[in-house]
Specification:
Radius of gyration: 13 Å
Number of strands: 9
Shape: globular
CATH architecture of one domain: Sandwich
CATH topology of one domain: Jelly Rolls
Number of helices: 1
Helix content: under 10%
Largest sheet: 4 strands, antiparallel
Strand content: 35-45%
Distance between the termini: 28 Å
Structural class: mainly beta
CATH class of one domain: Mainly Beta
Order of helices and strands: EEEEEEEEEH
CATH superfamily of one domain: Jelly Rolls
Length: 121
């Protein structure tokens, strides 16, 4: 099954750590997207794409720029599995790459209402 989500947020907004049952890719419309996985941290600027990783890879997405992020996330999913599941990084992986992300409390109402990322509690 193919799914396309539009998401974004203020600088510093981030998702909870989660997995998907298939690969994903991103197209950044505005701002800067950050992606943290066990493999490190990668970034994509407005007008560029980013490939995700395979199924069941722990991932945390975040708005890494100085302006609001607006992006499209494209997923190839297993229709018999949940869209996303909570996950954790192995010890030490969460700080790999040194990305500076602010607390979840900085999410804007606009981000929360249109974002499909699983929100941290």
């Amino acid at each position: 099954m193919l799914r396309v989500n539009r998401a974004g947020g203020a600088p510093g907004a981030k998702s909870q750590i989660h997995t998907h049952p298939g690969p994903e890719a991103f197209y950044v419309l505005a701002g800067k997207l950050g992606q943290r996985t066990p493999y490190g941290v990668t970034y994509a600027e407005a007008g560029t794409t980013m490939t995700g990783h395979g199924a069941d890879t722990p991932i945390e997405m975040f708005s890494a720029g100085t302006t609001d992020l607006d992006e499209l996330a494209i997923f190839v999913l297993d229709a018999d599995r949940p869209f996303s599941s909570p996950a954790k990084f192995d010890r030490g992986e969460i700080s790999r790459g040194g990305a500076n992300v602010r607390s979840l409390s900085r999410f804007s109402a606009r981000f929360t209402s249109r974002c499909s990322w699983p929100m941290a509690s």
